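hey team, just a heads up i'm posting the complex here instead of the shared drive bc the drive is being weird again. everything in one block, sequence lines first with there labels, then the predicted structure for the whole assembly after. its two chains so it's a bit long, scroll down
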Amino acid sequence: MIDLTTPIDVAIIGGGPSGLAAATTLKATGVARVVVLERESDAGGIPRHCGHPPFGAREFKRIYTGPAYARKLVQTALAAGVEIHCLTTVVQAREGGELLLALPEGQQVINARRVIYATGVRETPRSARLLGGMRLQGVVNTGALQSMVFLKHMRPFKRPVIVGTELVAISAVSTCAHAGIRPAAMVEPDPRPTARFPFTIYPRLKCVPMHLNTRPVAIHGDKTVSSLEVEDADGARRHIDCDGVILSGMFTPESTLGRMGHLEVDPATGGPVVDQFGRCSDPVYFAAGNLLRPVETAGWCWDEGRRAGARVADDLAERLPNGIETVPVSVQGPVLKYVMPQRLNLKVSRGKDVLQLRLNDIAKGRIIATSGGKTVGQWSVNSRKERRVLLSVSRLDQSAITGPVTMTFTPA
Amino acid sequence: MTINSTPYDVAIIGAGIVGCAMARRFTLEGARVVLLEKATDILDGASKANSAILHTGFDAPVGSIEVGCIQAGHEEYRRIYRDFGLTLDECGANVVAWSEEEVAKLEQIQQQAVDNNVMDTRLITGDDLRKVEPNLSDRALAAIAIPRESLIDPWSSPYAYLQQSLMNGGEVMLSCEVTGGRFDGSGWKLETTQGLVRANHVVNCAGLYGDLVNSSVFGQAPFTITPRKGQFVVYDKAASRLARSVILPVPTARTKGIVLFRTVFGNLAVGPTAEDQQSRTDSSIDTETLRSLMAAGEAIVPALKGMPVTATYAGLRPATEFKDYQISADAANNWITVGGIRSTGLSGALGIAQYVYGLYRDTGADHTALTDPVIPTARVLTDTANRDWKEKDHGEIVCHCELVTRREIEAALSGPLAAKSLAGLKRQTRVTMGRCQGFFCSARLAELTEGRFVIPMAEGVDK
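-- predicted structure starts here --
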């Protein structure tokens, strides 16, 4: 159980890179009691089961494998005086920073002055993809595969098909290689792979054919998987023989606690609505890391966690403006997928504040921000699908903003 | 080959919802029972996927065996659920009319309810409906409220029925398929994949295979099963607050139509479709149908749009060429067939068991009912109840989405009904049935279930 004799200044839900970075930063800025609540048996988050480099360049100026990096994050946090409680599940997050916990010893309610949500992302499962066919064992996300291979030394199949070509799909190829699994193929609905060069040559090195313009339709089999039915761009269908399916990517923030609780959740990012300080609709709660939007690297999340820690420390010291005077920011049209933060406090906007956008498609042109029918900012953009786009808030004509800001894309 | 020295009084074929209720009833009446199931886990056929609604029978065919069984079953469930620790969410249902033609049909539906002795329904206006269901589309014109339609746990309930049989002397044989049998004028020798099983009487509750079991023994069957597939979409738990009652459409001649309902596990679901097919195993889903179900759900509750989908599934209902349940006793052969238990099997099971025991008694069977039967404690998996994670020393939470503890998993992996498949474990504990569908817990589960499943989740790799 968590000792309740000393007040908890900040409780951090989730002990991955962003949560641990936030905790470490909070301690470094002199916050007295910082508690990390981690539901798994070990802290460290997703890197724990990414058994490959490169992790840690930005954080530690060294290259680690995922598990080594996770251990380093934990050691750093502990050395800074962070309390890490594993096997501790937050069941409910209530108004004002009251958290209902489930621990092996039973239930406990704790109160924290501030809470940082850092619960990360997960991949979209078969069900939410509306993938057809039979519901069979042997259909897993990359995260589950990695945990099986690197944490439990087990393999669920020998010849799976990998669906998707995000970076995590490349990681799936590597995980398979580690466990002696030979993927039968990778399939990608788009005409080109999502991951960047040179990662995309790795599957070829491992002799895994990549089928582009190929959409998964249905999983077939009786008791176990026997094939994946796919459709090409012309609508022709065929079966790829396999004994399993790895559904990679299509990340979604693990924002359940917010969704089931009282926080406003943005349907576009899937994460909580935040202002540029990472502050949620309940000002006691902040958010950091991949919970904010799918998906960034561990290093990026670590950096976001660090900044969230600094801002929460500012807030505790009453150095942060209140969250009332904000304008909502949203995207419109088919090309722009989301913008984060979704609220801006203009009066205190600093030069380094950025709007983070993501695109549904390849886009070359201009992103235009309007408010009250007037253009209040524009940026040129030339980006591939699913790439991060960062826009400087300083480019907004703040005095012209009269209400909600809408971002649209105009092709060149 | 095993040949029991003393024959069982009754062999029941099929451990679905009906077979489990049947085993309980016959055991309580004092009969020596064996339940034979071809799958490795109980509830693995038609019973694994349904709408989890305990019906009143208001819309069942008047005067049918079905309506009698539903109502007797509903009543018995209400009598026993508290003692068993089972769930009953008396959320009520509303049959909603979305067009003037449907409004015109409401009175007829209400009359049918009266004919079925469901007297507490009432006609309500669209405005009154939206007072109790504020998230319903404003296209809803009127409705009939059926207060006693309820939600229950579709797996813990039959599981508890069978548990009570086993605790009071009943037996179960899993992975035991009946392939044939001979009646010698006084008793049966059933040929099974586990050897011969002797029983004086046989009750065939084989669900999707009911006609095939009769054929394998008699060379013919009184009906033919044509499986009717129903696909479902289950939304995230955040959606459950969007509906209070079961939202039913005005039925057509062929189907009850697409229903929007909460589950006792805190989700909101939309379904089923009604697709006739020949295959008894093909419970595949297809993207287009799932999309159309979602569109149907969003038409009923617009706020469902954008709500994440947690699960998708299909169930097979054992439909026959007849409208009513096909329950018949062959007194000369000591054989009772219980077939064609379509979509209302969960509601009807306890009532079907009473009815069948009556048919059996009419053949002259004579047992002394147990005076003080042991009552099992059901698994508590519903959101509102005292789940194991709230108690001390549960080990750890393994499945985070559904808050399933290690202690619950270990319990489900032991005893005579120990889960032998991931599907069976899911029904007993709800592991991997939440939003992440195993993203977080599959590896730990593969480890915890190593050596327990017929088809393992994963195999060990040399380090």
